[in-house]
Amino acid sequence: MNWLFLAMATITEVVGTLSLKSSNGFTNFMPSIVVIICYSLALYSLSMAIRTIPVGVAYAIWCALGIVLVALISWIKNGQRLDLPAIIGMILIMLGILVMNIFSKTLIH
Question: Which residues of the chain are under the pLDDT cut of 50?
Fold first, then answer.
């Protein structure tokens, strides 16, 4: 269940981050409300996830997936260009998450 909370935290953080541009510095009402609600849900979900997932591990996964998902969605939706160093960096981030999940004893409860 706590991994589900971590997934929810990641999804809501990504939606909130992607809505920041539309909020135009919190001057557009609806996108601003989306940002506030999504970030609130993200932090609540993360707090629920870290009840059993170590905080460092949960935060690393949350941040890494957020970075990669926001960059990929921005590339697809907004045409944001990703150069080779950005792509390599995202691959390394994902490999780091895989190494942590496969080899780290930190995740074993």
Answer: none
Give the tokens for residue 59.
């935060």
Q: Which residue from 108, 21, 106 is spatially nearest to 60, judged by alpha carbons?
A: 106
CA distances from 91 to 9, 11, 86 (A): 21, 19, 9
Determine the Cα–Cα distance for residues 72 and 103; give it in Å rounded to an integer. 27
Domain edges within the chain: 2-107
d(CA 19, CA 86): 22
Predicted pLDDT of residue 105: 77
At 80, which amino acid appears?
Q
The HSE-up count of residue 96 (CA atoms within 13 Å, CB side) is 14
pLDDT in tens, 18-42: 999 999 999 999 999 999 999 999 9
Residue 82 phi/psi, 5° resolution?
A: -115, 115
